[in-house]
Each structure stands twice: as structure tokens, then as C-alpha cells.
Design a protein that fits this description.
Order of helices and strands: HHHHHHH
Radius of gyration: 21 Å
Helix content: 55-70%
Number of strands: 0
């Protein structure tokens, strides 16, 4: 019998790429948070970041939060995407309901795609990178290169989510056909 819960290698790579997509922008923010000059000038908050300031801590927190969310995409191709870890109270070792995982990941993919697309269209706007205090030259190229992978985050997550749903649906159908209760219970 085919194991419908094991994703193909291309889906595993897709989920890993989704998990890595926010890493370059996070590293850029961490550099700025620790006082590395990133090209902003004048009165811009990024022009003179003091390590340990509220803004610095905010950028560190944002980077960690974004990467933590991105790492959840690995659950679409790992065992813990099908079963909650045993250390979780109340739900430990239970199946992750398909609607729950697909609903959260699908919503995340939609929101990420919308926000990053809007951000790309506004990237060189007068209030963003075209502003006189924004980075120019190599600093502009580095910042753009660090933020560009975010454009792929939503679509990569959408592909991994769609395949997760397809695998779970196939496993459910196979479970009903064979009487396998592990996957036959509707979730």
C-alpha cells in the first residue's frame, strides 16, 4: 500500500524554502538592530539604532517571530504536521485536524502573498526607498536582495499547504477503503 502521508522530496524542499524565505530579511534587521550601518541617513529611525533600545529590541523580536512562523511550514512535511507533539497538554499525540492546519497555513500564504506583493509595488515609492534618507547604492542593493525572498514565502507556503491537503485527503480515502482507523477518521 502507498504511504500517502510521506511527501515527495520536491514538496519537502518547497517547505524548507518557505521556512528559509524570511531569513535574509531577518538577518538584515538583526544587523541593523545591533548598530551595523545599513544606509539610512538623517532622522530615520534606522539611521542611528542604539543596540538595546526599544526599536532595536522590536527588530530582534520581529525577526525571531517571523522565522518562528516560517518554521511552522515544516510541519506540513513532518510527522508533527499530522500529530501534535506529546508534550502539548490536552492535544498531545492526537491528529492535527486537516481543516486546522490547512486553514492556518492557507490563510498565512494568502496574507503573505498579498502583503509582500503590495510591498514590492510600493518598494520604490516616495515614502519608502525613494525617500532621500533611504539607502542608496550598495546599501540599497543589499537591502533589496535581503527582502526579495519574502516574495516567494507566500507562494511556497501555498504549494506546501495544497500538497499537505492532497496527501491528507488521499490518506483519508485510503483509510476508509482499507478500514485503517489511523487515517480514516475525518479531520
Amino acid at each position: 500500500m502507498t504511504d500517502f502521508t510521506t511527501p515527495p522530496s520536491w514538496v519537502v524542499r518547497t517547505a524548507h524554502l518557505a521556512a528559509l524565505a524570511p531569513l535574509p530579511s531577518g538577518l538584515w534587521r538583526l544587523a541593523a538592530a545591533f548598530g551595523v550601518p545599513v544606509g539610512f541617513t538623517g532622522t530615520n529611525a534606522l539611521a542611528d539604532v542604539t543596540p538595546g533600545s526599544f526599536f532595536s529590541l522590536y527588530m530582534i523580536g520581529l525577526s525571531l517571530f517571523a522565522e518562528a512562523l516560517a518554521l511552522l511550514s515544516l510541519g506540513l512535511v513532518q510527522r508533527w504536521g499530522h500529530f501534535f507533539p506529546s508534550w502539548l497538554p490536552l492535544v498531545g499525540r492526537r491528529r492535527v485536524p486537516t481543516w486546522f492546519a490547512v486553514g492556518l497555513a492557507g490563510s498565512g500564504a494568502l496574507v503573505l502573498t498579498a502583503f509582500t506583493t503590495l510591498g514590492a509595488f510600493a518598494w520604490n515609492g516616495p515614502d519608502t526607498m525613494a525617500h532621500p534618507e533611504s539607502p542608496k547604492g550598495i546599501a540599497y542593493v543589499v537591502m533589496t536582495a535581503c527582502y526579495a525572498p519574502l516574495l516567494a514565502w507566500g507562494p511556497l507556503l501555498a504549494v506546501a499547504t495544497a500538497h499537505y491537503w492532497l496527501r491528507r485527503r488521499r490518506a483519508h480515502a485510503a483509510g476508509r477503503a482499507t478500514g485503517n482507523r489511523t487515517y480514516s477518521a475525518r479531520a
